[in-house]
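hi! just following up on the protien thing from before. the input was this:
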Amino acid sequence: MPDADAPAAMPDVMPSIRRVMTPQDTNAVGTVFGGAILSEIDLAAAIEAHKHHCGKLVTVAMDKIEFHKPVFVGDVMTIFTNTLRIGRTSITIKADVWAQRRLTIGEAVKVTEAQVTMVAVDDDFQPTPVNGR
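and the predicted 3d structure came back as:
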């Protein structure tokens, strides 16, 4: 795994989500609450998973979550996703979260990463094959 402190460039691909973080997202120490970041990761993973399945999807697991650096109010948080695996009923997504700092124009740092597993479900929320697999 690359060192989170090493200089890196934000990926040059289309992000799943970009959002300016606001005061309502902060915790008691003044940084963005981890739960707010996880919520955005969940949405980004759903966007990625819907590339492979047009029906209902539910999140069943968030694994390998690592918070490398804090996110601050005013940062532009960008989430990049890619599909790691498509199973019979599940889709596993990798999410990388970057923050473009508001005070240092152009500086972007990788702040969080996670792996999300989503399952295709029917109207009764029972697992169903991903697009007929």
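The radius of gyration is 16 Å.
The domain at 17-132 is CATH 3.10.129.10 (Thiol Ester Dehydrase; Chain A).
cheers
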